[in-house]
């Protein structure tokens, strides 16, 4: 893809097509700067007539220790960029709970994912260090939904979203690699030079826990969109 905008538009088109052909699809959603233009395209598609009324959505992860109305919680992110602007009834969108007992929050989310059944299309970003959701390097392929400690690298990369002096949470609840890989289709998006090293280990390195994004290669239906800058190491 020539640039980040074209890659985001292509990803949004695939999601819109999934919803148009299967109006009650289960969509797996992701957060991060990379996804903001994808949601902008989907909101536009909604204004042009695409309904999400029967869709169910599950998010990949949430910081532990941030209440839902904290501006940097993924609950807030999803409301701001997508959920407040489309017709998905609130009871059909799920994000892990970031408050209270962390292990209980992870258990509840795992049970919810089990109940909902397979995700039809899972959207994924790629971390600077090759993480997917908050499955950091070192995560085995069969990891389940759980509480994780964030690496210094990830906290540093996500620092830019937090106010000066504010602490980036050290823990999160994340969908496990096992759940991610059980989706019917995966759709990953990586843009910008800062993702070039992660993308090249994911696609050209060994499939191993050092780079959880390398597991995507084992999925029978995974499409990865990247712009020129993120593809520069391939
Ligand atoms: C966070 C999220 C990931 C996301 C990554 C990349 O760590 N948990 O799911 O892929 O950030 O974010 P960005 O798109 O801002 O680079």
TrEMBL record:
InterPro entries: Glc/Gal-6P_isomerase (IPR006148), Glucosamine6P_isomerase (IPR004547), Glucosamine6P_isomerase_CS (IPR018321), NagB/RpiA_transferase-like (IPR037171). GO terms for molecular function: glucosamine-6-phosphate deaminase activity; identical protein binding. Signal peptide: none annotated. One of its GO terms (biological process) is N-acetylneuraminate catabolic process. PROSITE patterns: GLC_GALNAC_ISOMERASE. The keyword Ribonucleoprotein does not apply. Its EC number is 3.5.99.6. It comes from the Bacteria. One of its GO terms (cellular component) is cytoplasm. Coiled coil: none annotated. Residues 4-217 form the Glucosamine/galactosamine-6-phosphate isomerase domain. PANTHER family: GLUCOSAMINE-6-PHOSPHATE ISOMERASE. This is Glucosamine-6-phosphate deaminase.
